[in-house]
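Example record used in the benchmark description.
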Amino acid sequence: MERADVTSATLAYTITGAGEPVICIHGAFVADTFQPLLTEPSLAGRYQLITYHRRGYGNSSRTTRPTSIAQQASDCQALLAHLEVGRVHVIGHSFGGCVALQLALDTPAIVHSLALIEPGLMIGASRRPYREALVRGGQRSREVGTAVVVDEFLQARCPGYRARLDRLVPGAFTQAVSDAGTWFDIELPAQLAWHFDTAEAQQIAQPVLSVLGGESERLWERFGETHRWMLEWLPHVEGFVLPGATHFPQLEHPHGLAEGLAAFFTRHPHPS
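Model output (structure tokens):
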């Protein structure tokens, strides 16, 4: 991976392909979940794909300082400036979806479109139980250890994830356990403090693709509630439900996800 010094961090990144730029913002624990998409022909053959490790993950610099979601968005913007990318399609997964939304709020001129894969929004009836579940996970990590909680977190959101993860991204689970402190100590407080509701949603002027795994709501009702909330409140939104997938469609069905993303980008091309 290449490295870029941005603000107070060094970020590791990769660039593959050519065409309209697309940046992928990963979620909690696993920094390389987008790797399977990088070889999908519908994306790799048509777009410049930028993936990076957020601060505190993988090959990027460690951090012990509080890092807000606004700072995470600033990191992404600074990386794009380093790469001299002026306007970009943004894909955000889970916590990375929150970062993507903040990026669109803070620097709308550089965000051409948003593809949000089950972002970690605290809204509606699921707001309180989601918040309580996150707090409980942080407490449990101190009681039983990070490896146990990382496994529980991933298993609850993607049953049977381990075999798929080990095959597609070797070493990713070990790295996730190593990086888990970033989530529990740095990012979890940031997500609990972040506010995004109907007023903020109405400010998102870009085309948005809301991606929902077809089996996700069976695992947790909040995934479906969040998807429907975005369809109601974001001004320019389209829905995409990927059959057979749960919270990690980029690992479970990379081909289907890539096809859906490519079709969305095609409908909303960069201006020539």
